[in-house]
Amino acid sequence: MSFVPKETIEVIAQSIGITNLSPDVALALAPDLEYRIREIMQESVKCMRHSMRTFLTTEDVDTALALRNLEPIYGSTSNDPPQFKRAAGHKDLFYIDDKDVDIKDIIEAPLPKAPLDTSITSHWLAIEGVQPAIPENAPVEAPSEIRKSEYKEDGLPVDVKLPVKHLITRELQLYYEKITDLTLNKPGSIPFRRALVSLATDSGLHPLVPYFTFFVADEVAQNLNNLAVLFALMRLVRSLLQNSQIHIELYLHQLMPPIITCIVAKRIGNRLSDDHWELRNFSANLVASICQRFGHIYHNLQPRVTKTFLHSFLDPTKALPQHYGAIKGIEALGSRLIRLLILPNLEPYLHLLEPEMQPEKQKNEMKRHEAWQVYGALLGAAGQCVHEKVKMFSNLFSPPTRVTSRGSGKAVIAMSAAAAAASNEETCNGWPWGCGSNELHVS
Asked: GO biological process annotations for this chain's record (predicted)?
């Protein structure tokens, strides 16, 4: 007994123009139609399984028909289900409501967009073991207990952006906590010095570099009144810069502001005895080493730093400690910048500085001390330029040595006083002859 009724065979026959099909023939064709349908469906299921899918599509049926050398079914690829209507005058007869389509509308319809060409793009999957937060990399799922609510108080949905999870081992977490604790609470202890050595030599600290840079930037802003903590933070930065195994240049945009703050800040420390001058000198040398090391990577690094120092130096509204830091910063960057930035402004600046150095005009002893510190910084910067010039032309003004002989069979090399003074440092470091005379006795 076939599940296809003979009425279906009669309807199919009428659709192709056969109106005189006998009931016996329709009843005989029903089992064969069922067999053909089952055969096509079995082939369609095979195509579905070969495509690694669990649902059947019209493309699978078309592929099965093609395997049997049959034409595909046209007009059955729509996602909308077919609409059946009851035939007029027949209680149990239904037909599919096919809408008439005007050929003119099809011709005038716009063409579909051309598909994009096949292309290949590249992106960073990971940099030094750290996955960058870019659109090509899917963000790591945040733990469910710390997820934010997906709805506001009024019930409206909100767009929740999941944070990128940075995985750090438990050992590195303990290491970071220990270093930060020593920096803030025991900056002058022996364990802190050992920690600085570890920061400068350990090769596995790259995952902690962004945390250390954020820690330095945050603590400098909060501890401007604590000179010991600021000095410890700058020493921590120096140790990170000395470590050749980590790529600190990726985080210079976070490190430079706190370092420059320690140079040109208006006030550092809360006690009169705090030696903030030494901190400014240390930080200035730190900035100079950064510019020298990474200037070829970031070409605007030194110009931006120089512009900051020059602005602090030429601004009359800035305090004298800020002028001192700016002078020391320019001095650390080299003699060329001293000649270009400080020496042209030296004479007018000294006219403004001189009244602050005299007890008759400046009664505040602290301000006089600050003025003398700035004066000493200017002398040091100018002296550095003079020293560079002297080294450049020292050989032009030194007379040659003269070799004379004595009756005792010894050769005496006579030197000028200037040449002897220039070589005094070398001749006193382990040479077999003395350095108290300007004559070198050679046997």
From this structure: RNA polymerase II preinitiation complex assembly
**Structural domains present in the chain:** 6-108 (1.10.20.10), 170-397 (1.25.40.770), 402-442 (no CATH)
Where is pLDDT greater, at 99 or 68? 68
HEC string of the chain equals CCCCCHHHHHHHHHHCCCCCCCHHHHHHHHHHHHHHHHHHHHHHHHHHHHCCCCCCCHHHHHHHHHHCCCCCCCCCCCCCCCCEEECCCCCCCEEECCCCCCHHHHHHCCCCCCCCCCCCCCCCCCECCECCCCCCCCCCCCCHHHCCCCECCCCCECCCCCCCCCCCCHHHHHHHHHHHHHHHHCCCCHHHHHHHHHHHHCCCCHHHHHHHHHHHHHHHHHCCCCHHHHHHHHHHHHHHHHCCCCCHHHHHHHHHHHHHHHHHCCCCCCCCCCCHHHHHHHHHHHHHHHHHHHCCCCCCHHHHHHHHHHHHHHCCCCCHHHHHHHHHHHHHCCHHHHHHHHHHHHHHHHHHHHHHHCCCCCCCHHHHHHHHHHHHHHHHHHHHHHHHHHHHHHHHHCCCCEEEECCCCCEEEECCHHHHHHCHHHHCCCCCCCCCCCEEEEC
pLDDT band at 242 (very low <50, low <70, confident <90, very high): very high
Q: Which residue has the higher pLDDT, 241 or 88?
A: 241
Q: Is the pLDDT of residue 200 over 80?
A: yes
